[in-house]
């Protein structure tokens, strides 16, 4: 379970117990900061805090702000500037030389614009979504702090924003963010002022399919679950004892190679690892996976074994395209000198994570660009119609 999933579970339990809940979200950062826009912390009126928005130095202060505003429930934005000398006096000691802006809002359970409820829906229905939240207003604009627009993958929009030009621009920008699956911060100049909006793309858990149910597949499933991924293990030997080997809530599919295509769902978000240790099983799996839309296909074993698999498929009239081979990773994993099953699992999971984030896995000491995605504001001038 990852941090966001823990927040979702905490919100669900708070609703059952009748607790009042608040959400703190990092909406904008400048310079070097520990957490980036989108980091969240759930707080309740009983004192529970789930998630982090810093390295541990801001959470208690944010909660104090929340307690002071519990009565009116209106959203507020709190800024922390660790570039100023006052940071030492305040005692935060952020040490990152950056600025963090945090939106604090009460979660209204009946509201259709509840960000956590929308995120829950995206997770349960396994679809993408986009949340655009206003976190700064200047001038005489008719837009409220905390107003938002929700975009569904079918282009359905829900919003409490009344400004038609802003709605039009946000509709286009949230669609663009959803298409490239990148969150962003935008600044919109209206005739009477300007607003800043955090556009956040909500991605449901990554679906990982592990073909093979040997003991070396167990740490792969465990590490993937620690990241909050949705893990399915396919046992081509259909051994009932396999279920007890893997942690819950792994979906263990007992099958055989002749009917895999009828039992395993693959889409363009799926990542897969083939580690059956059976050549004929791997041949059938690769025959199914290569033409699929899977984003990543990793094969355990030496390179020459995979080359023979591809050659055997070619003799069957199944030629591999360059696009299919680009999604094929063999030998699977990044080069960290892995030997034990746990070390190999780390190498596999790290490689998949690098592919998902479009990174070339290397030592950060050799990276000349910022470590995290840039959230520099884009400025749009909206003229009255």
What does this entry look like structurally?
The chain is α/β, with parallel strands linked by helices and 385 residues long. The chain contains eleven helices and 17 strands. Strands 8-7-6-10-9-17 form a six-stranded mixed beta sheet. It has a six-stranded parallel beta sheet with strand order 13-12-11-14-15-16, with helices on both faces. Helix 8 packs across helix 9. It is elongated. About 2% of the residues have low confidence.
Global geometry:
elongated
Question: End-to-end distance, in Å?
Answer: 47 Å
Strand order of the largest sheet: 8-7-6-10-9-17
Radius of gyration: 24 Å
Spans where pLDDT lies below 50 across 5 or more residues: 87-94
Features:
single chain; 385 residues; alpha/beta; six-stranded mixed β-sheet; six-stranded parallel β-sheet; 11 helices; 25% strand; elongated
Layout of strands and helices, then pairs:
Elements lengths: L2 H15 L3 E11 L8 E5 L4 E3 L7 H10 L7 E6 L4 H5 L7 E9 L8 H11 L3 E11 L8 E4 L5 E3 L4 H17 L3 E7 L2 E10 L4 E5 L5 H10 L3 E6 L15 E4 L5 H4 L7 E4 L4 H11 L6 E4 L3 H13 L6 H5 L1 E2 L11 H16 L21 E4 L4
Helix pairs in contact: 6-11, 8-9
């Amino acid at each position: 379970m990852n941090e966001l999933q823990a927040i979702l579970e905490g919100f669900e339990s708070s609703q059952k117990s009748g607790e009042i809940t608040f959400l703190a979200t990092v909406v904008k950062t400048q310079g070097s900061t520990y957490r980036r826009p989108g980091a969240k912390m759930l707080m309740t009126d009983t004192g529970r805090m789930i998630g982090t928005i810093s390295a541990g130095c801001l959470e208690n202060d944010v909660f104090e702000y929340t307690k002071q505003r519990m009565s009116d429930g209106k959203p507020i934005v709190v800024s922390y500037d660790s570039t100023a000398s006052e940071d030492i006096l305040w005692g935060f000691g952020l040490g990152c030389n950056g600025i963090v802006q945090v939106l604090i809002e009460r979660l209204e359970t009946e509201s259709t614009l509840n960000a956590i409820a929308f995120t829950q829906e995206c997770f349960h229905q396994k679809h993408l979504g986009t949340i655009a939240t206003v976190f700064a207003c200047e001038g005489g604009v008719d837009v409220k702090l905390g107003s938002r627009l929700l975009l569904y993958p079918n282009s359905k929009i829900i919003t409490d924003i009344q400004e038609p030009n802003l709605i039009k621009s946000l509709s286009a920008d949230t669609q663009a963010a959803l298409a490239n699956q990148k969150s962003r911060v935008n600044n919109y100049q209206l005739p009477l002022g300007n607003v800043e909006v955090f556009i956040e793309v909500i991605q449901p858990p990554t679906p990982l399919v592990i073909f093979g149910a040997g003991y070396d597949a167990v740490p792969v499933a465990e590490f993937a679950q620690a990241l909050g991924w949705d893990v399915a293990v396919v046992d081509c030997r259909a051994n009932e004892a396999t279920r007890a080997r893997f942690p819950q809530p792994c979906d263990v599919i007992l099958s055989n190679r002749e009917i895999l295509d009828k039992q395993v769902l693959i889409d363009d978000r799926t990542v897969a690892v083939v580690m059956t240790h059976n050549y004929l099983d791997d041949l059938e799996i690769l025959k199914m996976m290569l033409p699929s839309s899977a984003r990543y296909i990793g094969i355990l074993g030496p390179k020459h074994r995979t080359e023979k698999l591809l050659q055997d498929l070619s003799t069957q009239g199944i030629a591999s395209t360059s696009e299919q081979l680009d999604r094929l990773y063999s030998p699977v994993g990044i080069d960290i000198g892995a030997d034990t099953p746990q070390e190999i699992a780390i190498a596999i999971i790290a490689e998949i994570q690098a592919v998902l984030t479009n990174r070339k896995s290397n030592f950060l000491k050799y990276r000349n660009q910022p470590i995290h995605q840039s959230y520099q504001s884009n400025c749009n001038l909206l003229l009255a119609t």
